[in-house]
Predict the structure.
Amino acid sequence: MTFKELLPYHALTVISSSVSYSIFLIIIEPSYRAVIAFFLISLITIIPYSVAAVPLQLFLNKSPKKFSILYLCTYSVVAILFLYIFYKLQGNWSDPIGGYGKMFVFAVGAAIIYWFWDSVIMNKKEYPYY
């Protein structure tokens, strides 16, 4: 299958991951503005998932494996690096306010969520990759 044929599955993976990640963030840091945060976080997280995770997903799924720990580790490392580099590019040269532990939890949470949806949506036998 070509990328054009698989685009709806990539989009579904990104959208499912974005919605799940916003629920994850609302559970970790509840707010009285949770409904507004849910929609904003869902829209905002589509960008990093599309920029960082989809190309990695294309590369990893040339030999697809469901719920592979290697894929989870790869998604986690890329998520941590992406979040750290993005944080530094914003001009924040000091340590994050919540500490690196909180940044680590957010990045690994995003990676686990994307890995889960990648394994569920993209690695089905009826949608063979390449």
